[in-house]
Design a protein that fits this description.
This protein has 675 residues and is α+β, with helices and mostly antiparallel strands. The protein folds into 6 domains: 53 residues, Helix Hairpins; 233 residues, D-amino Acid Aminotransferase, Chain A, domain 1 (2-Layer Sandwich); 76 residues, OB fold (Dihydrolipoamide Acetyltransferase, E2P), CATH 2.40.50.140; 68 residues, Orthogonal Bundle (DNA polymerase, domain 1); 71 residues, 5' to 3' exonuclease, C-terminal subdomain (DNA polymerase, domain 1); 80 residues, BRCT domain (Rossmann fold, 3-Layer(aba) Sandwich), CATH 3.40.50.10190. The protein is 37% helix and 20% strand. The protein starts with a helix and ends with a helix. Bound molecules: 2-(butylsulfanyl)adenosine (IVH).
């Protein structure tokens, strides 16, 4: 191929890759399949192999990494990288605004730029005439480390800025972080490879960014959000007179920004924004540890200046810590519905993530080995949002001399049956089956739970009491309870008994999906139960299904198929199923509309926000029955967004993309027309 045509081809592929990467990583709007992106990248690498002179600093091939350093050079920051003052209470925000008023001698409410405080690492990225030429860590604020090769591999960092009127020099400052999902996947891969796992996304981001081999960094799911600038010389951005205009200018040049930023006026509005982000926190795809408030007007920022290492014009309002130190006092072993034995850490109570935590799951023996934890150890506990508290790691330096090993029981702590551990599985199980009262209790609790038969008033404590007193052995016995027997229970009056009997009667009207779910077959969750019901249509068909036909069900693999098959071959289980049906448990016949009568056939629908009338899984099931594909992310391919209360970024994105939007009521009304 002639030199000029190779150059033209290089130029064209380069531009396509830049556009695709921008659409995918910055705008969150994928336009081509991953395979197409990979194919173009390979073509570009091939051209550059033939013509190394085309391998410029801004070539997308730099994203795959390659350079291996022996050490990081240091970089002096032209403008120091400062830290932030912290606030913890609403009053700290009010005092912050008051200090600004006093210092500037003004009384008008102040406009603040508000941004989630990203939990990653601060970086400085220098662009000259639009090309990324250097990137550095914050270091001590004066001098950082040169991590150019690594930053270049970060998927959403542009190697070349977009647009005209670019600054001659511009230093972008922002946070490099690892999204939660990427962190989970990375840790799983590390575990599978017998490599060290990371305690949290921040540590994983730090470990990934400080790699001498940039190929390793390239393989890690890092992202950048820009939040300010350092040096700026020339270009449109130089004229910006507020922080938010600077951010907009950065976005125009192709830099990724956090989508939750806003501007508000006055301290009270800051408090409201802080609370709003607090509620959103768990749904965000990345970790944050607070909110940063910055005086928006740059002239005012200039007048306020700095005190020691932090600007007077900014405040980091922190959420309560999600990680704390405490002591592991003991380990108890709990027996679950399927006999799985779970070690539970009994902790010195500690206030973390906004609540007092005294228990945490240790999952299984593998996890205990991985943590290397002993009784008496000081451990780091993490509790994020509604997530169950986790033991993150052990502080070995604090291990006392009397610390001792955790011994897994060989016999079930409840029924004394033998404990079985299959090599390919992480969990140990009690082999007692329905002999084990712990398993029985859990099976009945599951049967009565909201997503199963939803027996109102049958709480966990009541189930435990009924099993302990021999009133019931299995779920089928529930429907043979009578007033006299119920009234024999501790603190259980006539009225409660009548209510429970009525609730049991109501619960008999269910759906096949819920019934299948309620049986508590291993690894058959709500979604699988629904798929089974839709596939087989009747209970008899599910009971009689062979493994081959079970595998045909959506999302059912060999293992799950085996669990279902084995369950249905167990006479004791069939007896319970038959008794339940004989007691009057029933469901409406499933009628599947032919494809051409399914109103949502071929449509992709996204659910977001809180659906208060029906709940998300129910809405999903109903939409699927009507032919819809229910997806979790909004893209150009989305046909309809159903937005419940407190819908956030998905709603804004769908609005931007001009996607049809329904509120919950519209969906409820529509479904009524289908009944
Ligand atoms: S502004 C002078 N904005 O917080 C302004 N920082 O405690 C300095 N951080 O080192 C930074 N999100 O790593 C700013 N939206 C945000 C931020 C943010 C996270 C981090 C940053 C900085 C640390 C200061």
């Amino acid at each position: 191929m002639s030199d000029t045509s190779l150059e033209n081809q290089h130029q064209s592929i380069k531009q396509q890759l830049e556009t695709f990467a921008y659409q995918y990583y910055v705008l969150d709007e994928p336009s081509v399949p991953d395979a197409e992106y990979d194919r173009l990248m390979q073509a570009l690498i091939e051209i550059e192999r033939k013509r190394p002179d085309l391998k410029t600093a801004d070539s997308p091939t730099q994203k795959v990494g390659g350079a291996v350093l022996s050490k990081f050079e240091s970089v002096a920051h032209e403008i120091p990288m400062l830290s932030l003052d912290n606030g913890f209470e609403d009053d700290d925000l009010k005092a912050f605004e008051q200090r600004i008023h006093d210092r500037l001698n003004i009384s008008e409410p102040i406009e603040f730029a508000c941004e989630p405080k990203l939990d990653g690492l601060a970086v400085s990225i220098m662009y000259e005439n639009g090309i990324l030429i250097r990137a550095a860590t914050r270091g001590d604020g004066q001098t950082g480390e040169n991590i150019t090769e690594n930053v270049k591999t970060i998927a959403n960092v542009p190697l070349r800025l977009l647009g005209d009127n670019l600054p001659q020099r511009m230093e972008v400052r922002g946070e490099v972080f690892m999204p939660k999902h990427g962190f989970e996947t990375l840790n799983q891969t590390q575990k599978d490879n017998g490599a060290k796992t990371f305690a949290n996304p921040r540590n994983a981001a730090a470990g990934s960014l400080r790699q001498l081999d940039s190929k390793i960094t390239a393989s890690r799911p890092l992202r950048l959000y820009a939040y300010s600038v350092g040096v700026v010389e020339g270009g449109e951005i130089e004229a910006a007179d507020t922080h938010s205009k600077r951010l907009m200018a950065l976005a125009k040049m192709g830099l990724p920004l956090c989508k939750e930023t806003d501007t508000v006026v006055g301290a009270q509005a800051c408090v409201d924004y802080f609370n709003k982000i607090g509620r959103l926190r768990d749904q965000l795809s990345y970790d944050i540890d607070g909110v940063v408030f910055k005086v928006n007007n740059l002239a005012l920022q200039g007048r306020l200046g700095f005190v020691s290492k932090a600007p007077r014009w900014a405040l980091a309002q922190k959420f309560p810590a999600q990680e704390e130190l405490t002591v592991l006092n003991d380990v108890e072993f709990q027996v679950g519905r399927t006999g799985a034995i779970t070690p539970v850490a009994r902790l010195q109570p500690v206030f973390v993530g906004g609540v007092t935590v005294s228990n945490a799951t240790l999952h299984n023996q593998d996890e205990i080995n991985r943590l290397g934890v002993m009784i008496g150890d000081t451990v780091i506990i993490r509790r994020a949002g509604d997530v169950i508290p986790q033991v993150v790691s052990v502080v070995l330096e604090k291990r006392p001399a009397e610390a001792h090993h955790i011994v897994f029981p060989e016999h079930c702590p409840v029924c004394e049956s033998h404990v079985e551990k299959i090599d390919s599985e992480a969990v140990a199980r009690c082999t007692g089956g329905l002999v084990c009262s712990a398993q029985r209790k859990e099976a009945i609790k599951h049967f009565a739970s909201r997503k199963a038969l939803d027996i109102d008033g049958l709480g966990d404590k009541l189930v435990e009491q009924m099993v302990e007193q021999g009133l019931i052995l299995n779920p089928a016995d529930l429907f043979h309870l009578d007033l006299a027997r119920l009234c024999s229970l501790d603190r259980f009056g006539d009225k409660s008994a009548v209510n429970l009997l009525r609730a049991l009667d109501t619960a008999k009207n269910t759906t096949l999906a819920k019934f299948l779910y309620s049986l508590g077959i291993r690894e058959v969750g709500e979604a699988t139960a629904r798929n089974l019901a839709l596939h087989f249509l009747t209970l008899e068909n599910v009971v009689a299904a062979d493994k081959e036909s079970l595998i045909e069900v959506q999302d059912v693999g060999e293992i799950v198929a085996n669990h279902i098959y084995e369950f249905m071959r167990e006479p004791a289980n069939i007896e319970i199923i038959e008794k339940l049906v004989a007691s009057g448990v029933k469901w409406p016949k499933i009628e599947i509309a032919p494809a051409d009568q399914q109103p949502f056939a071929g449509k992709t629908i996204v659910l977001t926000g809180t659906l208060s009338q029906m709940g998300r899984s129910e809405a999903k099931a109903k939409l699927q029955e009507l032919g819809a594909k229910v997806s979790s992310s909004v893209s150009a391919k989305t046909d309809l967004l159903v937005a419940g209360e407190k819908a956030g970024s998905k709603l804004s994105k769908a609005t931007e993309l001009g996607i049809e939007i329904w509120d919950e009521q519209a969906l409820v009304d529509f479904l009524k027309t289908r009944d």
